[in-house]
Design a protein that fits this description.
about 425 residues, alpha/beta, Metallo-beta-lactamase, Chain A, Serine Threonine Protein Phosphatase 5, Tetratricopeptide repeat, seven-stranded mixed sheet, six-stranded mixed sheet, 13 strands, about 15% strand
């Protein structure tokens, strides 16, 4: 399998991922072998792998709510056979939602519904999704700047689950499943040993690993690195990632897997070293950094998550929620603290003015502290809300990660709505 010119430009950093997304929008198939294709609908939407067997098709993932119909249409342009088995690489909705369409298609054609296989923890994930449906709608709406977003429900549960590894044979095609913890605790990567094709799921996503998302449950940077090393040991010839274009060639695949492991190993090692010295989370956050030469790789750019967020997750994995600051163990109500500091500063307005000056000077971290204190001390002051909107506009401009920008945007919009000038600074 050879890569096309666009891939080479993406690999070198000469072309942005948006150009690849434009090339596959609407649904496109990428031939891997005569009987294997990857199906793409765009970077934000999970890839699907289809394997042709004499017993029917085997799919790895199913597509998102937004593009599952495009995925299915692209699949049917390639092969109209019944779908025998579906493997979830994990329980995130951009990889599982399309299973509903597959069931509907099977029912309409009078065929048996596909057998769905996943790690056991996918069942627990879907139970959690049901219990926190409204919360998930809020979180996802904020993360992707879609106010009013409604999280899917009625998740298609797997029919069979496994714990550590599982080997399947479908009409003579051997398919091996391996569990690893990374972005989720229910993740599976799929290995086709005879073809030397690896479907990594979201262990590889063509950006810096999403191991620190501030509004999601615990993520597992150390174990993510271990899973990537385990994949590297298989020596794949082809890597089909959870998002983004297919990588071909053993050397390039090894590089992608190894670099991803190395950046997570570095963050984990640095964080643990300082934790073992008794340092606080605040000290660690400002002392640990990811290797710059790795963050410069086109497939490790911190455009979605942020290494600093990952350090927080590593801390939480090993040390729990207490950050080492005794004032945070049993904190005073925020309004009480804000009123006291505003009094010391002379007024809430004085805090807001200083926050604005700091933000303009590029000191957005400190500015955010002060403007929140000012707004909490005087929540009905529209002038302060105007300043708050301006500070968070500066924070958005300074932030590199999509997640960080999105969260700052939530509070920028909130402040603008409460200010005297509408959406000031937006």
């Amino acid at each position: 399998m050879q890569q096309d010119p666009l891939f080479e430009r993406i690999w070198s950093g000469a072309a942005p991922m948006e150009e690849w997304t434009a090339s596959v929008t609407g649904g496109a198939t990428k031939p891997i072998t005569e009987n294997i294709v990857a199906i793409h609908t765009g970077y934000l939407f999970g890839n699907v792998t289809a394997i042709r067997t004499g017993a029917g098709l085997v799919l790895i993932d199913t597509g998102s709510r937004e593009t599952a119909s495009q995925t299915l249409a692209a699949l049917r342009r390639w092969d109209d056979s019944s779908i025998h088995t579906v493997i979830y690489t994990h329980g995130h909705i951009d990889h599982t939602w399309g299973a509903r369409l597959l069931d509907q298609e099977a029912d309409a054609r009078g065929l048996a519904r596909p057998r769905i296989i996943a790690h056991r923890n996918v069942l627990y994930r879907f139970d959690r999704y049901d219990a926190t449906h409204a919360l998930n709608s809020i979180v996802m709406g904020r993360q992707f700047n879609q106010p009013g977003y409604t999280f899917p429900d009625d998740h298609r549960r797997p029919d069979e689950v496994y714990d550590d590894t599982l080997a399947l044979t479908v009409d003579g095609v051997r398919i091996e499943l391996f569990n690893g913890r990374g972005e989720t605790d229910d993740a599976t990567f799929v290995w086709l040993p005879e073809q030397r094709v690896l479907a990594s799921g979201d262990f590889v996503i063509w950006v810096f690993p999403n191991a620190g998302n501030p509004r999601k449950v615990q993520r597992f940077a150390p174990q993510w690195a271990m899973a990537l090393r385990r994949m590297q040991d298989l020596r794949p010839d082809v890597l089909i990632p959870g998002h983004g274009p297919v990588v071909a060639g053993e050397a390039r695949v090894a590089q992608v897997l190894g670099d991803g492991a190395q950046v997570l190993e570095s963050l984990t090692g640095q964080t643990l070293e300082l934790m073992n010295q008794g340092r606080s989370l605040s000290e660690i956050l400002h002392a640990v950094s990811a290797p710059a030469e790795l963050l410069a790789k086109p497939y490790l750019l911190p455009k979605y998550d942020d290494p600093e967020f990952v350090v927080r997750n590593i801390w939480h994995l090993y040390a729990g929620w207490f950050d080492g600051n005794p004032a945070h163990l049993k904190p005073a109500p925020e309004a009480e603290l804000a009123a006291e500091i505003a009094s010391l500063a002379g007024s809430a307005q004085a805090l807001a003015q200083r926050a604005t000056a700091l933000a303009i000077a590029g000191r957005t971290r400190l500015a955010a502290h002060l403007i929140e204190l000012a707004a909490t001390a005087s929540p009905d002051d529209k002038t302060i809300q105007t300043a708050r909107a301006g500070v968070y506009t500066q924070c958005m401009r300074a932030e590199t990660s999509l997640i960080g920008k999105a969260l700052f945007a939530v509070y920028q919009r909130d402040a603008a709505a409460q200010s005297t000038v509408g959406k000031s600074g937006s």
